[in-house]
Design brief:
Blueprint: E1 3-8, H1 14-32, E2 36-40, H2 44-51, H3 57-65, E3 68-71, H4 89-96, E4 101-107, E5 120-126, E6 143-147, E7 150-153, H5 159-176, E8 184-189, H6 197-209, E9 216-221, H7 222-231, E10 238-241, H8 243-256, E11 266-268, E12 273-276, H9 294-311, H10 314-330, H11 347-361
Length: 362
């Protein structure tokens, strides 16, 4: 039975890094006989030009029918208003597919200059509520202006959403558990100020932690967590938090690891998952063959691993492992650094070298 993956190029550097990513997937598909079928659908400015909207109902329907999704970066800040066709594909897919867990690893690689050392953490953010005004209401928008010069924003935190992101965090921590070191789950909050909303979140985390006595549970204020990531990121294994806090902390962590271009990211729910580079569309370097494709490639590795575990397909898990190993091996050579990492390697050259490494790993 084939596995149907739907790919959305997105905007800016999206088509370039998507091409690299799909070249890697196609190689593994051929070598490991994964039976993956890939289809593509336009979104973003290309879709706006062709169909009058950045994200069509047909694109959403195809996403719901697919086994998994790879989403290229989108430049939704530059889109026109929703009234004029400007729909954020990322936010829409997260809500419509109930992709409640955004999972973002951050780690150090050899020969990549960074402001950290011994970083190997995973940040999980709740993905469907919080302060995100375009997705935290059943109907309408969570941000509005009742009169000129006044803006109001609602933050929605629910027990149900908090429990399921906490359960996901402890499940990932359990997979990292070993005889050498017990994993630590840090629940990050601002309950000293937002006593009600973050109180609900913390109560959920504490409730879930009681079912996992083999995992160390700690709590930390979000501002302290940001400072500690800068000072000593090695103290963190798993961070679980609300939407906006997680968005900010994960960018801090991955930038400290060397670049957002290294930042894998998976949006996952009960029935769907979507790989998505953590960085933006970088329209200023689009078409220059200088974009770093590693973030989307690592995100796709996470997607294959998710699919493999859900479907009990060992070769998909193997494919994920091979991608991760090939990226680690890639940075053994200082010449394999793209512009964002202080090097000169092109998008195409990085892809060629990854394919060369993979061919020797398989």
């Amino acid at each position: 039975m084939s596995i149907n993956i739907l790919a959305f190029d997105g905007d800016g550097i999206g088509p370039e890094i998507m091409k690299s990513t799909l070249n890697i997937v196609e190689l593994l598909n051929e070598k490991l006989k994964l039976k993956i079928d890939i289809s593509k659908e336009p979104i973003g400015f290309k879709s706006l030009e062709q169909k009058g909207t950045t994200f069509t109902d047909d694109a959403l329907t195809k996403a719901k029918k697919a086994d998994a999704i790879i989403l290229g970066p989108v430049d939704h800040n530059a889109y026109p208003s929703k009234m004029h066709g400007g729909i954020n594909p990322s936010g829409t897919l997260r809500i419509e597919l109930d992709l409640y867990a955004n999972i973002r690893p951050a780690k150090n690689y050899k020969n990549v200059k960074s402001l950290s050392k011994d970083m190997d953490l995973i940040i999980l953010r709740e993905n469907t509520e919080g302060f995100y005004a375009d997705r935290n209401m059943f109907e309408g928008n969570g941000e509005f202006s009742p009169s000129p010069g006044i803006g109001l924003a609602f933050r929605k935190i629910t027990k149900a959403a908090s429990i399921r992101i906490a359960e996901t965090a402890f499940e990932i921590a359990r997979l990292k558990n070993n005889q050498i070191k017990k994993p630590v789950v840090h629940a990050i909050h601002k309950a000293n100020v937002m006593k009600l909303t973050d109180g609900i979140f913390l109560d959920a985390c504490r409730q879930v932690s009681k079912k996992h006595k083999d995992i160390i549970y700690k709590e930390m204020l979000v501002d302290a967590c940001a400072a500690h990531i800068i000072r000593d990121p090695s103290q963190f294994d798993i961070i679980v938090t609300t939407n906006m806090f997680g968005d900010i902390l994960s960018d801090i962590a991955t930038e400290f690891s060397g670049s957002l271009g290294l930042a894998g990211s998976l949006n996952a729910g009960e029935n769907y998952a979507m790989a998505q580079a953590q960085h933006g569309s970088a329209p200023d370097i689009a078409g220059q063959n200088t974009a770093n494709p590693i973030s989307l490639i690592l995100s796709t590795s996470m997607l294959l691993n998710w699919l493999g575990k859900r479907r009990k397909i060992k070769d998909l898990i193997l494919a994920s492992s091979l991608i991760d190993k090939s990226v680690t091996n890639l940075f053994e050579n200082k010449n394999n650094l793209t512009k964002d990492l202080g090097g000169t390697a092109s998008t195409e050259k990085i892809t060629e070298n990854l394919i060369y490494i993979l061919n020797h790993l398989i």
